[in-house]
Amino acid sequence: MGAARPATATTKVSIIVPALNEARVIGQCFESLAALDFPKDQYEVILVDNGSKDDTVQIARSFTERMQLSVLERTGVRISGLRNWGAQHAKGDVVAFLDADCLAPRSWLNDIAALAPNNNLGVVGANYLLPDGSTWVGRTWHVYQEESKSGDVSHVPAGDLIMRRDDFLRVGGFDESIQTNEDYELCERVRVAGMPVRAFPELGVVHLGTAQSLKVFYRKQRWHGTHVVKVFLRDVFGSDNRNAVLFAAYSFACLAAIVGGLVWPAFGGSWALLALAVVALALPPALLTGRRILRSGRWEHFPALFTMYLTYGVARANALLRIREMR
Predict the structure, then answer these.
(1) pTM recorded for the entire structure
(2) Do residues 183 and 158 touch, judged by C-beta distance below 8 A?
(3) Which CATH superfamily groups domain 13-211?
């Protein structure tokens, strides 16, 4: 598929949006891009579609007259492959990766232009912003775990990650062999290459995909955990994934002990093992929650945050069972 309105020689920023069956949200995403307070001839939008079966592409093409738009297709790859394909075809000096379920603020490109003036920029971006009307699940995790960060960070989410195009291609782009944790892995390589990774709250975008129920939160964390171990094993002693992997492994051991504790009484054993395993499973979430609550002083948030951390641990432990997806 070709470009509807080719980028011009003055293109400064290429916004790359990967998509697969995103008809529910792509219109809102593109509406935010069409409304950006930035010269239309200085940015392009590249939709890279993975063979959507819904109206994703048709909805995207309806914005042809409102911005410089290219629609590319690359099927049978992970989301990293879509982003890399878009970067290879980008005309801008800067590539800004935006997920299809994210909304950019009107000043987004002006802020990017101000923060990305030179080569060897490294990575800039921001944690996601919370959608209006979010539930206690979305609010709790956002406030205590995804709060706005500024300055040097381990990584920024791939759905709001910005680099100079030359720098991105020089470090090899996103790793197409992993399904998740690709943003963290890229940021690790950027630091090894001697460039910084920085967060700027003003670059935050609204993430419509924020989990709003425990069921969805569990599924997302289980999915996100599938390749965390794979990335961790590449640098066991230097990876910031270490704590997440240890938490997952500990939770897995506790869950295995709970199963054993349920079976053991059938062979004449006591229920002590089950009680001990349940307490052990709950202990790290309780300690993490206590530490966060001490900082905020909002003790009424303890039950909600404890529930989130407990669900996170169980989800990441379950991700370890999906070992085939880690290859």
Answers:
(1) 0.88
(2) yes
(3) Spore Coat Polysaccharide Biosynthesis Protein SpsA; Chain A (3.90.550.10)
Of residues 322 and 48, the one with the higher pLDDT is 48
Strand ranges (DSSP E) for the chain? Answer: 13-19, 43-49, 68-73, 94-98, 102-103, 123-125, 151-152, 160-164, 197-199, 206-207
What is the domain partition of the chain in residue ranges? 13-211, 242-326
pLDDT tens-digit map of 200-237: 999 999 999 999 999 999 999 998 887 777 777 666 66
DSSP string computed for 113-137: HHH--STT--EEE-PPBPPTT--HH
